[in-house]
């Protein structure tokens, strides 16, 4: 990549309300995306703070990249290179009481 992107991690509830979010430069700002190489795996964990009174339930995590200067998100592409979204969604299921 020619540009340095910012990572976003969002947690949404079943009604698509944002209940937690983190935006940061990759690897705590130490490994910008302009230094990444194709096929390279980057370990970049994030901790998203959630309210202590957040009820159990079904939640989703959206993860993606964007240019900070323009807020333009990087496209997620399929195996043919066609844009399919601007984020990756990971389902999360809350614990039952």
Describe the protein's topology.
Layout: E1 6-12, E2 18-24, E3 58-66, E4 76-77, E5 83-85, E6 88-93
Antiparallel strand pairs: 1-2, 1-3, 3-6, 4-5
Q: Any descriptors?
A:
four-stranded antiparallel sheet, single chain, 97 residues, 6 strands, globular, mainly beta
Mind explaining what this structure looks like?
By secondary structure, this protein is mainly beta. Helix content is 0%, strand content 35%. Strands 2-1-3-6 form a 4-stranded antiparallel sheet, with no helix packed on it. It is globular, with a radius of gyration of 15 Å.
Describe the structure in brief:
The protein has 97 residues and is mainly beta. It has no helices and 6 strands.
Strands ordered across the widest β-sheet: 2-1-3-6
Structural class of the helix and strand makeup?
mainly beta
**Any low-confidence stretches, pLDDT <50, length ≥5?**
none
| Distance between the ends | 45 Å
Q: Profile the largest sheet.
A: 4 strands, antiparallel
Number of beta-strand segments: 6
Question: How many individual helices?
Answer: 0
Shape: globular
The succession of helices and strands, N to C, reads EEEEEE
The percentage helix is: under 10%
Strand percentage, roughly? 35-45%
Give the integer mean of the pLDDT values: 92
Q: What is the alpha-carbon Rg in Å? A: 15 Å
